């Protein structure tokens, strides 16, 4: 990790402070088993992304973002999620972090409104957050390589998997892709947005595609996707799925925009 303080560092510091006020204590495996027995099984993100016409779409519900500002602040998650699914979304990502005006309420609302897998989009640095995500109805979580030292990334990946969650593991370059796979990631995301400058470079998604084997892994292109031309380039490069948010949330008709993006 770089020594310069970045936007990611700021969010992680806020997250640590938040977690300290929660003091979850240690949950025993017995307690966890009891908890899991009460919860519905997770929906299969891998299965949703693996089949059908590529790239599959993970459509994101995001009210605002530090990089883009307000997108659709008073949006109704149930309505937007239904539009996404009708337009062909394979899965839905929901921001739950407060820097994005996200919440677990949004996650629960979306989970109840659709039958596709729902990804909890947050800055996860602890087991307690993973338990919470599972309890709130997440089918999958995001783990960010740049936010976690290798042993922690592996531990959280294993822990989430034990709870039945699938992980989208996010990298920004070839080194991080390697770390993701070393931690056991099968669904690898390449985030085209630079976390320091917020600049987006879709070429990075294409550049690092060869670093992830086509068999046994899925490769997800994340962030900055704007139009059909972008999607066509990513499709030609062999990207399995795209994660797209801002352009949909800003659109007058998010469903129509998604359908246009992923049309064959
Ligand atoms: O809104 P965009 O540019 O279409 O990007 C979606 C998604 O990739 C982005 O929200 C994202 C990717 N990784 C993250 C980590 C945390 C918060 C947000 C993100």
From TrEMBL:
<protein>
    <recommendedName>
        <fullName>Indole-3-glycerol phosphate synthase</fullName>
        <ecNumber>4.1.1.48</ecNumber>
    </recommendedName>
</protein>
<dbReference type="InterPro" id="IPR045186">
    <property type="entry name" value="Indole-3-glycerol_P_synth"/>
</dbReference>
<dbReference type="Pfam" id="PF00218">
    <property type="entry name" value="IGPS"/>
</dbReference>
<feature type="domain" description="Indole-3-glycerol phosphate synthase">
    <location>
        <begin position="8"/>
        <end position="261"/>
    </location>
</feature>
<comment type="similarity">
    <text>Belongs to the TrpC family.</text>
</comment>
<keyword id="KW-0210">Decarboxylase</keyword>
<dbReference type="InterPro" id="IPR013798">
    <property type="entry name" value="Indole-3-glycerol_P_synth_dom"/>
</dbReference>
<keyword id="KW-0028">Amino-acid biosynthesis</keyword>
<dbReference type="GO" id="GO:0004640">
    <property type="term" value="F:phosphoribosylanthranilate isomerase activity"/>
</dbReference>
<comment type="pathway">
    <text>Amino-acid biosynthesis; L-tryptophan biosynthesis; L-tryptophan from chorismate: step 4/5.</text>
</comment>
<dbReference type="GO" id="GO:0004425">
    <property type="term" value="F:indole-3-glycerol-phosphate synthase activity"/>
</dbReference>
<dbReference type="InterPro" id="IPR013785">
    <property type="entry name" value="Aldolase_TIM"/>
</dbReference>
<keyword id="KW-0057">Aromatic amino acid biosynthesis</keyword>
<dbReference type="InterPro" id="IPR011060">
    <property type="entry name" value="RibuloseP-bd_barrel"/>
</dbReference>
<keyword id="KW-0456">Lyase</keyword>
<keyword id="KW-0822">Tryptophan biosynthesis</keyword>
<dbReference type="GO" id="GO:0000162">
    <property type="term" value="P:L-tryptophan biosynthetic process"/>
</dbReference>
